[in-house]
Amino acid sequence: MGKFIRLGKPALAKLAAFEQALNPQQPEGGPLGAKIIGYGEMSTVFRFSDITLGKYAFKRMAIFHSADEVNNYRALYLQYHAELKKRGVETPDYGCEIVSAANSRPVIYILQALLDVKTIANKRLHADSERDNLRLYERILTAIERVFAGNASSKNGIQLGFDGQISNWAYDRRLLYIDTSTPLTRVHGAEQLDAELFLRICPSYLVWIIKLFFLKDVMARYYDLRLVLIDTIANLYKEKRHDWVKNFVARANAFLAVKHPHIKPIAENEVASYYKEDKFIWWLFLFFRKVERWVRTKILRKRYEIILPEKIER
Q1: What angle do CA 261, 184, 77 make, to 5 degrees?
Q2: Where do the domains of the chain lie, and which CATH numbers do they carry?
Q3: Is the pLDDT of residue 313 over 70?
Q4: pTM: predicted TM-score of the whole model, two decimal places
């Protein structure tokens, strides 16, 4: 199981200095050799060439406004890891450090032991055979089942929302779940992760629309096993493995037939429709975020805190 890690004082001081000097529009380079290795909807993932920081990937989350918010998030993040451990889902070594941004607001960096990129499951889609990837998918299905079985049998009312898509796993002799930075957790049906955090990544003029029509559904789908499985298979479209969809759907349906016979089988056209809708929504969302960034930085001459990718392949 992944161990909790803390940075030593010299490494933490370097990370804090990096954040203070960071220009979100030119985030790479500098004395620590910062390089972006991934993007999330609310975060950016860095690695550093600096020897004291080089063992870890650092996911930067600059969406918090107060100490209370970061402390609440950190507690939920640690609880999420504890619940995954109880359910037998392994993660890499992990940590959570809090520093201050140039605007004095708190920023969280999620630490994770740096993995060989070749072990990330979506990279294996291109390196290994379909047969090997179906075997890996079976391992992923088993891990997802542990999460949802834990939800069903929970005696303390804790349920985990779970983003099981293929790119969130790594495999090298053992299966690791690597995306724990959105610790969706319900206690007796009440969501513990502040939905306001999701709204802060939205263009200001779209917040009310997203809050009214989309936010609840987006969060709820990670508590729905069937939708989680559809999402895992939809990754094949993103990775240009359309020809594997049929066999992955069959494998998911065989799993459902044994473990959850009451759940309706998944159809191939559902996966295709899900992918197309998801791709369009996130493309449009990124477009509007870039418009807002341009207005804020070029017209209003203000800082735009979140680092955006120029393009995300979906």
Answers
A1: 130
A2: 9-113 (3.30.200), 117-299 (no CATH)
A3: no
A4: 0.91
